């Protein structure tokens, strides 16, 4: 079996067409964008002491770390079967040649021991570069048994940071769920674990959006026939009212966290895009026309805003400068587009396109003007939001009957269901 | 002789008269007959009551709570075409009736709620619902209702009237409905 990876398209087509002439072997081709994933060896963690909870903790930590690395698309864990080809790891005398022989680029050495209090564990992780046989970085975490997943996510984020990527595994997704009766705001880990409720208003809370500091959430609350925009500070527990005249919705913080774009009908009862300071002061209007303008999303530089408008007759995606000038139409090939989400990596814009009853998510590459259809299902796939590294998206879908949240990679692979209780929608992934 | 006859007559009359009177006085009434029959049914009649004066329409209106008033739905909802927010022809008489009611009860303030069906996306639908509410608002203003008496809100597709997934349900859900918020 011949595996050809990471070759430019032309070479791959030529190779694929010539190869069968020489051999009858099965040819497996896989073509992916970007650099090849980095193989990481992550042998079973070293355990000090024989308490069962330490062993369990070590197992959980390793499982979570491996799942994170696998999800990243930057790293790929070595297949478990490879470990048996070489002698077991000796942390005091690492034989790097062995690890190189099974194609590991990075070696992760994990050690878990019981803390003196017998309740928490100490998790120490060291990352080595196999080829240069060098220690790259080490981290040590003390974690309560209930926080093992978080400790593993923090360790996995060190891998991301090492390669100049934003922390992905400690990022959170906020969303709206009716699992406890009415629509309230909830939060979960990127992988769907650890789902917690954030609002207890007994009124409809809607359209949450993260501030880039990962501490504040803007959202709309329907109270007494009003749709008021609030900012909830998760650390201080404070709630600040931003705008209470008219219907206010679809908040979006600028990437530097200093500004908040949102939709409001405070003038003329028509949805227009406004921008305020992130504390809600100094509200300025950006769009001025009789059509609907909604769903603002900032470019990663904060210099532009993409939004939906039906000024041309049907809802389409437009981009304007952050001051409201220089508006241009960017969506094409359909008559109903909404919910633009600008990837933090810059060139990609995800949005929803409707064809009769079906909503699918498309990704427009703003540099090449190429469009990829990300979802292909007889369902309503809505409200895409990018992961901090721009390789994954979360969205809502009624694919399985009820409306649930799913995540998918930028190339349409790795679809995962994240929520199961009640109906869940309007996700926003922290950046 | 004549005198004797008169005397006799007077005497006789007097005698009879006095005799009659004496008898009456002296007569011992017979003991009451034993009751053998069932007693006569006495009809118990409702004692006369003070009648509540008829309430005027205004007084009836005054006494109702906002909840009771809203439950009666004196203002009828109107529906919209798919992806549209202009007032349909069939909605105009309904809005005219609503305007007439609002003119009758001049103290009433209302909230106009715009709703959409599930075939729109969340963000656009919230704006579309607002447009529908605004279209109704403007139409009522054109019929002479003061803008100060009306507020608008959009719920997008979050509050469907009919949870179904067919044309019939969607047609029901694309609507503007009214809530009385003050009277």
- Structural domains of chain A: how many: 3
Largest interface: A-B, 36 and 26 residues
The H/E string of chain B reads HHHEHEHEHE
Report mean pLDDT of chain A, rounded to a whole number: 89
CATH class of the largest domain in chain A: Mainly Beta
Uncertain regions of chain B: pLDDT < 50 for 5+ in a row? Answer: none
Report on the architecture of this protein.
The complex is a heterodimer of chains A (431) and B (183). Chain A has 431 residues and is mainly beta. Helices cover 13% and strands 43% of the residues of chain A. Chain A has 4 helices and 32 strands. In chain A, the strands form 8 sheets. In chain A, strands 3, 4, 5, 6, 7 and 8 form a 6-stranded mixed β-sheet that branches. In chain A, strands 11-10-9-32 form a 4-stranded antiparallel β-sheet, with no helix packed on it. Chain A has a 4-stranded antiparallel β-sheet with strand order 12-13-14-15, with no helix packed on it. In chain A, helix 2 runs parallel beside helix 4. Chain B is of the alpha+beta class and 183 residues long. Chain B has a domain of 122 residues: 2-Layer Sandwich (60s Ribosomal Protein L30, Chain: A). In chain B, 44% of the residues lie in helices and 13% in strands. Chain B contains 6 helices and 4 strands, in the order αααβαβαβαβ. Chain B has a 4-stranded mixed β-sheet with strand order 1-4-2-3, with helices on both faces. At the A-B interface, strand 12 and strand 20 of A face helix 5 and strand 3 of B.
Features:
heterodimer, A: 431 residues, mainly beta, Rossmann fold, Neuraminidase, 3 domains, 4-stranded antiparallel β-sheet, B: 183 residues, alpha+beta, 60s Ribosomal Protein L30, Chain: A, 4-stranded mixed β-sheet, 4 strands, 13% strand, rod-shaped
């Amino acid at each position: 079996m011949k595996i050809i990876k990471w070759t430019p398209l032309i070479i791959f087509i030529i190779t694929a067409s010539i190869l069968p002439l020489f051999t009858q072997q099965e040819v497996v081709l896989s073509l992916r964008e970007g650099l090849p994933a980095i193989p990481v060896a992550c042998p079973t963690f070293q355990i000090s002491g024989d308490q069962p909870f330490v062993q369990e903790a070590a197992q959980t930590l390793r499982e979570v770390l491996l799942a994170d690395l696998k999800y990243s698309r930057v790293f790929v864990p070595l297949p478990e079967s490879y470990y048996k080809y070489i002698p077991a790891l000796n942390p005091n005398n690492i034989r790097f040649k062995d690890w190189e022989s099974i194609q590991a680029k990075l070696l992760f050495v994990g050690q878990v021991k019981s803390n003196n209090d017998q309740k928490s564990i100490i998790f120490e992780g060291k990352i080595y570069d196999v080829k240069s046989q060098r220690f790259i970085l080490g981290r040590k975490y003390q974690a309560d048994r209930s926080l093992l997943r978080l400790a593993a996510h923090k360790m996995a984020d060190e891998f991301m940071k090492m390669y100049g990527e934003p922390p992905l595994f400690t990022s959170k997704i906020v969303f709206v769920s009716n699992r406890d009766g009415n629509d309230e705001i909830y939060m979960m880990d990127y992988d769907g674990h650890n789902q917690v409720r954030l609002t207890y208003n007994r009124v409809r809370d809607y359209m949450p959006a993260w501030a880039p500091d990962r501490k504040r959430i803007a959202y709309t609350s329907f109270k007494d026939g009003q749709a008021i925009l609030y900012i909830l500070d998760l650390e201080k527990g404070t709630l600040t009212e931003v705008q209470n005249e008219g219907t206010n919705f679809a908040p979006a913080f600028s990437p530097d966290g200093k500004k908040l774009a949102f939709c409001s009908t405070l003038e003329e009862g028509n949805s227009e895009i406004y921008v305020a300071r992130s504390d809600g002061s100094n509200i300025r209007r950006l769009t001025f026309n009789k059509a609907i303008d909604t769903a603002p999303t900032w470019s990663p530089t904060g210099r532009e805003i993409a939004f939906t408008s039906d000024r041309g007759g049907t809802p389409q995606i437009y981009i304007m400068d952050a001051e409201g000038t220089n508006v241009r139409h960017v969506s094409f090939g359909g008559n109903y587009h909404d919910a633009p989400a600008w990837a933090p990596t810059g060139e990609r814009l995800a949005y929803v396109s409707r064809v009769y009853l079906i909503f699918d998510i498309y990704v427009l590459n703003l540099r090449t003007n190429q469009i990829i259809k990300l979802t292909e299902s007889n369902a309503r796939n809505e409200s895409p939001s990018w992961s901090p590294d721009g390789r994954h998206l979360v969205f809502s879908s009624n694919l399985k009957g009820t409306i649930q949240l799913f995540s998918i990679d930028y190339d349409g692979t790795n679809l995962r269901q994240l929520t199961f209780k009640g109906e869940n929608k309007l996700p926003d992934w922290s950046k | 002789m004549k005198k004797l006859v008169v005397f006799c007559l007077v005497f006789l009359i007097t005698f009879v008269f006095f005799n009659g009177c004496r008898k009456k006085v002296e007569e011992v009434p017979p003991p009451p007959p034993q009751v053998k029959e069932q007693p006569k049914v006495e009809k118990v009649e409702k004692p006369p009551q003070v009648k509540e004066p008829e309430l005027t329409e205004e007084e009836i209106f005054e006494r109702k709570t906002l909840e009771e008033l809203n439950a009666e739905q004196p203002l009828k909802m109107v529906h919209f075409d798919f992806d549209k927010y202009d007032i349909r022809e069939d909605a105009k008489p309904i809005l005219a009736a609503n305007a007439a009611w609002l003119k009758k009860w001049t103290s009433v303030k209302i909230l106009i709620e715009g709703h959409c069906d599930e075939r729109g996306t969340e963000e656009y639908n919230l704006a579309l619902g607002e447009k529908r509410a605004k279209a109704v608002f403007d139409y009522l203003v054109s019929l002479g209702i003061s803008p100060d008496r009306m507020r608008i809100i959009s719920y997008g597709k979050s509050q469907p009237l009919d949870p179904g997934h067919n044309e019939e349900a969607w047609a029901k859900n694309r609507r503007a409905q009214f809530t009385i918020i003050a009277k």
